[in-house]
Amino acid sequence: MQIYKVGGAVRDRLLGKPVTDIDWVVVGATTEEMLAKGFRPVGADFPVFLHPKSGEEYALARTERKSGRGYGGFTFHASPEVTLEEDLIRRDLTINAMAEDDQQNLTDPYHGQRDLESRILRHVSPAFAEDPLRVLRVARFAARYAELGFTVAPETLDLMRQLSESGELEALTAERSWKEISRALMEDQPQVFIQVLRDCTALKVLMPEVDALFGVPQPEAHHPEIDTGVHTLSVLEQAALHKQPLTVRWACLLHDLGKGLTPEEEWPRHIAHEHKGLKLIKAVNERFKAPKDCQELALLVGQYHTHGHRALELKPSTLLELLQSFDVYRRPQRFEEFIAACEMDARGRKGLEQRSYPQADYLRGAATAARSVAVQPLLEKGFTGPELGEAIKRERLKALKAYKEAASA
Ligand code: CTP
Fold first, then answer.
1. Contact yes or no for 110/97 (Cβ under 8 A)
2. Which DSSP letter does residue 217 get?
3. How far apart are CA 281 and CA 232, in angstroms?
4. Is 259 in contact with 238 (CB distance < 8 Å)?
5. Ligand 1 near 404 CB (within 6 A)
6. How confident is the model over 29-65, as pLDDT tens digits?
7. Coil, strand or helix: which one is 125?
8. How much is the pLDDT for 139?
9. Eight-state DSSP code of residue 98
10. Fewer C-beta neighbours within 10 Å, C or N terminus of the chain?
């Protein structure tokens, strides 16, 4: 049997990037031989094994044939006769279809190295269409390598468009899609992921609610970029520039969905878009089974981002309601993430990226003021049950009034 390093490990070494996990392909071996060498099989009929010591993935060279719709519809053909070239041709991108032996000799039948040098993400063969998840993968690689100047080859974008229009993307499971989406959002240029999905019409299938924001105007006085889709991409770009966590990035992507529902005759104003957007945010959250913290923050940011921007004008009672909605007493981190998302929203406007956002510190101060109310003295006064709750609220309101007065003095 011959063993080669394949995929991302070869690509990233040639790019001079750190290699984290290594995938191997084994040519000329049978399952029985692998088991005899102590490799542990992954799943029942999948020709992939884990190395007994390193735990790295070793896959038997294989060809795949599609036997039905969706990822479930695969039959694998792995046998000792399958050549390295046959294995490589069924992979997604030329830059991912190179193999290397233990002497670092490169096998590159589909010109991955040439495409690496010319910064092109190009599919290897029509077998690309066997797995529609690759549409998301290509968009994710475009986001990751945008800083190096990579773009998607026109013929690959065409194929991605065909796949998107064929209905194949709808067969993807929430789990597989979310894995790609969440990884793409954590790249340095996540806005490129969304842009590429839009360019190949996949965005319309995956997140029609986000796609609908393009072409929707906002008032130029607040939003010099005007277009809501362009704004959303800029907010995401700011979130990445400021190294925000996934929760914040997800909330940034979805915060303005309500603007896609505004009747044209009301443009460029978007009355109550915060509230109208909630059902859309919920739908996207559930479609991809986003983790609970992402779901929660997206809904809260959707509902309250305008409150964040108007923080300095809010009445103490409204400030209190905001803090209560976030349960800032038990979940201080979530409120911090809300503040961050609001700030990214404000910075994601053309020409206003560097403008300071005093609302952030003001909101932090308000949270500290409300949290500083001590419960013990109220207990000592004999308050219990719902009356205690009311008393705490009154004290917090007092604290917020004093805070607001002090801040505006
Ligand atoms: N691959 C593919 N189609 C997929 C998934 C994987 O063709 N849907 C192939 C590619 O050759 C890829 C390799 O399997 O390079 C390993 O896949 P994976 O570990 O998911 O990705 P990497 O390319 O290693 O990239 P990353 O750095 O994002 O992990």
1. yes
2. B
3. 14
4. no
5. no
6. 998 999 999 999 987 667 899 999 999 999 999 887 5
7. coil
8. 98
9. -
10. C
What is residue 17's DSSP assignment? P
pTM above 0.85, yes or no: yes
pLDDT, residue 89, reads 96
The response to whether residue 96 sits with its C-beta less than 6 Å from ligand 1 reads yes
**CA 184 to centroid of ligand 1, rounded, Å:** 14
pLDDT digits (tens, 9 = 90+) for 88-115: 999 999 999 999 999 999 999 999 999 9
- CA 93 – ligand 1 centroid, Å: 9
What region, left, alpha or beta, does residue 70 occupy, with left being phi > 0 and alpha being psi -120 to 50 degrees? left
CA–chain centroid gap for 236, Å, is 10
Token pair of 284, please?
A: 């996207």
Three-state SS annotation for 302-325: HHHHHHHHCHHHCCHHHHHHHHHH
The span from the CA of 92 to the CA of 58, in Å, is 18
Contacts of 164 (CB under 8 A, 6+ apart): 135, 200, 201, 202, 204, 205
pLDDT at residue number 401? 97
- Determine whether the shortest distance from the Cβ of 133 to ligand 1 is under 6 A: yes
Nearby residues of 333 by Cβ (< 8 Å), 6 or more positions away: none
Q: Is the CB of 91 under 6 A from ligand 1?
A: yes
92 within ligand 1 shell (Cβ under 6 A): yes
> Which residues of the chain have a pLDDT value below 50?
67
* Residue 290: per-residue pLDDT: 98
Counted residue by residue, the chain has a size of 409
CA 133 to ligand 1: nearest atom: 8
